[in-house]
Amino acid sequence: MSADQLTETPQLTLSTFAELWDGFRQRDLRQRLYDAGGVVMRDALLDLHGDAHKLRRRVENRLFRRGTFRFWEDELVPRIIDEAFAPSLRAGRGDLVQLGYRTTMNLTARVAGADHPTGSVEETDALQQFAVTFSEGATLVHSTRDHAQVRAEVEEALGRFDAMFFTPSYERRRALAADPAVPEDELPRDVLMAMVRNADELGADRTVMLREVAFYLQAGSHSTSDAFTHAADEILRWRQRHPDLAGRLGDDRFVQRCVHEVFRLHPASPVAERRALADVTLRDGRVVPAGTVVVMDIRAANRDPEVFGADAEEFDPLRTVPDGVPPWGHTFGGGMHACIGMELDGGTVPRDEAGGGPDHVLGTVPLMVRELLRHGVRPDPDHPPTKDPHSKRDHFGTYPVLFDPS
Ligand code: HEM
Questions:
Q1: Ligand 1 geometric centre to CA of 333 (Å)
Q2: N or C end of the chain: smaller count of CB under 10 Å?
Q3: In the prediction, which pLDDT does 120 show?
Q4: Could you confirm whether domain 3-375 is CATH 1.25.40.340?
Q5: Is the CB–ligand 1 distance for residue 288 below 6 Å?
Q6: CB of 46 closer than 6 A to ligand 1?
Q7: Domain range list for the chain
């Protein structure tokens, strides 16, 4: 039983599309999902509030500008996908869960600023293990395990991560920042570099930066790889149901549409949680008393039939949504904590059917799915996918697939 249940903290659940739109934008609703997860989340962007959040977000936002996305999408992401997919494509078979993790771990580490000293698969797998442990620490509020035990494991993992990845990455960036001969456009474009350069303004010491990099590793990797596996699964099943429409999967924009529909149906974080710092008046007139825990049910709001139609539970990449509604619903949150990696993963929504213009970016997940489709991906008939037995959430544990011979 949680502390809130013991002390009977008042709780309110918001679950329609309109309620969540409002809830995410209420300034006196403070992040609360990570109250127990301080070992990793203390002072992380997602757990900051008010001016401290605004300042950090401004510094980190500079990295996530359209120009940087173009660079990531044109150069960085295809290279990382190639490296991660090549062994499976050569073998003619692979596992989507593993492909997803290997790709997104390397990408997220690049964005966070955790250098890979050797670039080996073993290093990627070590990063993944760290991300899993940090994620368990961050979401301690939902853990059924002994909290002190989980905290001790996370502390121990942070120490090893510090020695293996963080210290060399941090020292390299400090040396670069101190060297006037290094031009600005040759500095790494990542979160750690941005924090090192703005350390005084942010009031952030080395320990805060260590936790921020650890937070990014888990925030970016699991959500992306999970979306990738669900996207491949929904598309493969849709293709089987609609062989007459399968040709549309050769169009990048259509693949992106499929992925947006998958984001809506399978939000990586099915709930967000806030605590009311003061009495809050919702747009529908209800007053939420100070101290109330507000649970925002993203999964339910994304299936709100008022907004997404009577068939909102189904995967339909041809679905149209009302003006002003993102096709992924609330999957990336909203308001001050809206996901900073949203465009990196999902790209931008084309302005019209014809395609989107020069600024249009497809996003990492559509690029990964496109790569699978280009190589004739199909489920392995002898090894059906399995769900992750260690998670209460809807995650795949294995997803074996076959590819055309290269
Ligand atoms: C499909 C993939 C992803 C999903 C579904 C997702 C979802 C979310 C959600 C729901 C939030 C807001 C949580 C809240 O309000 O309590 C969030 C925040 C955040 N996400 Fe993501 N995310 C994804 C990918 C990424 C990636 C790739 C990165 C970075 C490389 C990232 C970095 C962040 C950060 C830094 C925040 C905190 C923003 C702030 O507090 O200002 N996410 N994400």
A1: 8
A2: N
A3: 85
A4: no
A5: no
A6: yes
A7: 3-375
